[in-house]
Amino acid sequence: MPEVSLNVLDIVQNSVKANASLIEIIIQKNTQTKELSVTIKDNGCGMTDEQVSRVIDPFYTTRTTRKVGLGVPFFKLSAELTGGRFSIESEVNVGTDVCAVYCYEHIDMMPIGDMAATMVSLVSVNPSIDFCYTYAVDDRSFTLDTREVRTILEGVPVNEPPVLSFISDFIKENEAELEKEE
Hints:
- There is one protein chain.
- It contains six helices and six strands, in the order H-E-E-H-H-E-E-H-E-E-H-H.
- The chain is α+β, with helices and mostly antiparallel strands.
- A six-stranded mixed sheet has the order 3-4-2-1-5-6.
- Helix 1 packs antiparallel against helix 3 and helix 4 runs antiparallel to helix 6.
- The longest helix is centred in the C-terminal third of the chain and has 21 residues.
- It is globular, with a radius of gyration of 16 Å.
């Protein structure tokens, strides 16, 4: 994957397939340690300890359409190539937390990419799932939570084009503001 945002998109698809009703995506940039952490948490079906230990193997997948599953192994590798680290925790019937920590000044660090487009894609295709996206730089952050958006919209679907435009603009403007203050 050439961008972190595409890794996020791929990992979130696992959460969707795990029947999650809430998916949290948290990006935290620490300018002191020069680390960027990307965490995806869901309340899906979760995995057994055996599944967790096997999920980083590219030749393990629960899919029946193909015999390989590259999303998690690529996500792990992309973090480790920068000198970072990767973790995955899961509990059956509770959910899964996946975290990749990148050393963002490393030569092998890929760009974050367009998280606004990633979030719009996820919300537009999965309107019944709640997404909570948080972007933080040091101690400053913003959050876009579709549960709050739904409350404000009073019944208007979150995947309506004007709502998706709002989501995109909100994310882009707030990310730019946080990066500018750095």
